Amino acid sequence: MQEWGFLAAALAIGFFGSSHCIGMCGGISGALGMAVPGRETAWVQLGSYQLGRLGSYTLMGALAGALGAAVIPALTPLRLAAGIMLIAMALYVAGIWRGLVWLEKGGSYVWRYLQPLSAKLLPVHSAGQAVALGSLWGWLPCGLVYSALTFALAQGSAGRSAMAMFAFGLGTLPAMLATGAAAVQVRNLVQKPGVRLGFAAAILLFGLWTIWGALGHGGHGGHSGHGTVDATESPQSEEPEHHHH
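Structure (tokenized):
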């Protein structure tokens, strides 16, 4: 169960942080949902857009995980950084501290090159265009995505990091699929102070849980892929000593 706990955590981070997503990407989702006449066609385009967005998150996770495993093989500092980022995101969602804004400003340099490409895909007339647009909008500067990416990076491999970012993307889907009147209702709901504080508290708990695991508690911080400690402390390693005189 512990082995798959990181996926549940990533899913929950996406779900509880999706109040931020509504402001960042909800507009484009709503526009796609109402872009063409005919409910089925609209849902196909909206689903295609979300598929592209999840694909870009998964790619981000794979790249970050591969880079992290190559550059920082020790997972403890990565997990500490992930916990700190999640706490920062909780304060951001709660409206207490907006320090993550500087990260979004940093990401805006990349978006400067991608934004003109996304503009060329509008208006969307096909599912393929919607997938391409979603894959570009996945790189939109977003503190929540960066927090989740740091969490994914701390998983220690390209595969696990990619899985974590995919799960995070799935968590954001309920809010992102809300269109039209439903989108207004969801937006009004998440703007309520009590709801925002509840979501922030959930993210804060995940941040504290990540730091707790990084410090070696609950078995979470010990998973690094290296078995040298267990091998050297194994009782069998002492048996040859009895044959020497």
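The CA atoms of residues 48 and 128 lie 7 Å apart. The radius of gyration is 21 Å.
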